[in-house]
Amino acid sequence: MSRSLPVLAAALFLAFTPAAQARDITDAMGRTVAVPDTVDQVICSGPGALRLLTYLQAQDMAVAVDDIETRRNQFDARPYALANPQFKKLPTFGEFRGHDNPELILTLSPQPQVILKTYGTMGHDPVELQEKTGIPVVVLEYGDLGKARPKFFQALRIMGEVVGRSDRAEEVVSFFEERIADLAKRSKDGADLPSAYIGGVASKGPHGYQSTEPGYPPFGFVGLPNVANTGGLKGKELAHTDVAKEKIVEWNPDLLFLDLSSEQLGPKASALFELRTDPAYQSLSAVQKGHVYGLLPYNWYSRNFGSILANAYYIGSLVHPEAFKDVDPGQTADEIYSFLVDKPVFQEMNALFGGMAYQPVPVVD
Fold it and tell me: How many C-beta neighbours within 10 Å does residue 297 have?
């Protein structure tokens, strides 16, 4: 018998299950999606989807994961995954970045009642996935902590509505709003601040020191001038770009920050290796004066919202020392992670990166 026949039969069975028609949800694509009145089993497809489920304290509803969650790597900068090692033991339903396998999904036991999918245009088409599996697919727009912050909050609220965690979704939204407001209040005196550059920012994988984020939110939260945000940039340019090495030398910023994600490239290819060995970078005054500082990865299977806040508190402690004198950056990071993922994972994560986060990084002999 053709394998497609039982798969089709299962899809039709699921599609006409009465519980699947209990209530309507409007997803980020504007689609009306019928989901069960009570949802206990889900899968999270696409970058960051399982992170959001964890923020909502609903991670135990996940019955399977995409294959990135089961990998065992030397480095990991995803607090939600470090706090939930059980994810590595769950069955997989497809490949990472939304490349779902409908036939694998239909073999899962228990079956997911809903598929929660970020980045709807990446990987398997959500409408086609719903048609093939008969399982409701709710699309979420992941957003960021910059101009797309409302989309991030909307994603939390839609997911919260689906999985019965609307109250928790509002708590998470309030947490971010209050922390960002606290950073702004502490940083209101922005006179005579140094200039800065952040390099080594990941984007769909690790990159060298020329890789940056002109609209890097932690700088904005504490009012720190970013030399890469030169004006005239918009959209994706603000989110990620590679700048010419000559421009970094020309800018010669007062402070250099190193996103530790590029450590994945290996000891002789990382952004840190570049800073230590490239004569152009060695000529920078910040390198010569020891003003190079390690930060937790901004992107790791999409944006690490908790680490973005934690990085902002560390940066604030450097450029507004009096206003942040009560802040211990590592302890503050753990307060953030404890709220978001229910576990203080800063020390564990930092150890994977050689303990280089939130301190000066030696780049000269």
Answer: 26
